[in-house]
Amino acid sequence: MSIDIFAKLPNELKHHILKYSYKVQSKKLRQDITSYIVTYSNVYNIYYKTLVGHFGEPVEEINPWLVNDIIGFVNKDIATLQEYTLRFYEFWRRRAEFREKTDEYIRENFGRVDNPRILWTMLKPEERIIFLLDLIKP
Fold first, then answer.
1. Which of 23, 32, 45, 75 is 20 to 30 Å from the Cα of 129, by its Cα?
2. Spatial distance between the Cα atoms of 75 and 87, rounded to a whole number of angstroms
3. Could you tell me the pTM of the whole model?
């Protein structure tokens, strides 16, 4: 958060934010955050070099490609036009808005999430590594 924005916040809110920021977070959460930062940076760079550097695509094409590939990954590389796997539904239920929803609701609404960073947060650290390794294997 920018210092300028923080300075404009009400004192009660500042106190609440600062109190939380001084709490030591669990090792698992810290590892998840580190995994997210490192792996997303690597994946984005690979997509940038491939799509923009090699194929000459505009940088705006990275996000749609990455979203499509993450969805394909969680659906075990089966086209969502064909079928949806159990892993697909389990992945989407990690997101609060889908947690208690039916499979049908998930199928009809998962497309609204089109930000690869959001999808990347939903992957477990070990899934991020597998995605990255699948991406770089010859």
1. 23
2. 6
3. 0.83
Distance in angstroms (rounded) separating the CA atoms of residues 36 and 126: 11
User: 9-35: buried (b, 16+ CB within 10 Å) or exposed (e) per residue?
Assistant: eeeeeeeeeeeeeeeeeeeeeeebeeb
Tokens read off for 112: 């609204």
Per-residue pLDDT tens for 20-35? 778 888 999 999 999 9
Quote the CA–CA distance of 71 and 88 in Å, as a whole number: 8
- CB-CB contact of 132 with 39 (8 Å): yes
Q: How far apart are CA 133 and CA 135, in angstroms?
A: 5
Q: Could you give the angle at the alpha carbon of 125 between the alpha carbons of 122 and 130, nearest 5°?
A: 100
User: From CA 33, how far away is CA 25, in angstroms rounded?
Assistant: 11
DSSP 33: H
Longest alpha-carbon distance in the chain:
54
Q: Are 123 and 70 in contact (CB under 8 A)?
A: yes
